[in-house]
Design brief:
The chain starts with a helix and ends with a strand. It is globular and about 70 Å long. The chain has a single domain, classed as Periplasmic binding protein-like II (D-Maltodextrin-Binding Protein, domain 2). The longest helix is centred in the first third of the chain and has 23 residues. A 5-stranded mixed β-sheet has the order 5-4-6-1-7. Strands 2-3 form a two-stranded antiparallel sheet. A hairpin with a 2-residue loop joins strand 2 and strand 3. The protein is built from 5 helices and 7 strands, in the order H-E-H-E-E-E-H-H-E-H-E-E. About 4% of the residues have low confidence. It comes from Sapientia aquatica. Keywords: Signal. This is Phosphate ABC transporter substrate-binding protein.
């Protein structure tokens, strides 16, 4: 009987530790674009799933950030990486769309946003060179 109680206590303590550890390392995610675009937070999901492709005559180019992708998909799109891949697989074959390219980190995302109008990406830290659409 005592061993069962010990197992429960250890299991509860482990769960509590994992929860606190993940909360301590939670990262803010900023969806960013160039200053010329007027995209709202409510449009982020549509952009990243290919449902919104143009804003004010500018072709939108969503870019995934490899270092934040899983967190972004969970927080912003409420999708698992597997579901996101499946969704884009259907869009490629059914609609002829091109899925978002993936860049390795924040620096690559920001550099692309600065060089290519219409780029929308997500980063863990922002600079004055980009406009924040929303934060997750």
């Amino acid at each position: 009987m005592n061993s069962l109680r010990l197992i429960r206590v250890v299991g509860l303590a482990t769960s509590l530790f994992i929860f606190c550890w993940s909360a301590a390392f939670a990262v803010d995610i900023y969806v960013v674009t160039s200053s010329g675009l007027t995209i709202g937070a409510e449009e982020v999901k549509d952009i990243f799933v290919g449902d919104k492709q143009v804003e004010g005559g500018v072709k939108l180019t969503p870019i995934d950030n490899a270092s934040l992708k899983t967190e972004f998909l969970d927080k912003a799109l409420h999708l698992t990486p597997e579901k996101y891949t499946q969704l884009w697989g259907r869009k490629v074959f059914r609609d002829g769309l091109i899925p978002p390219m993936t860049k390795a980190n924040d620096l690559e995302i920001i550099a692309l946003i600065k060089s290519k109008p219409g780029t929308v990406g997500y980063v863990s830290a922002v600079s004055g060179d980009v406009r924040v659409i929303t934060k997750y």
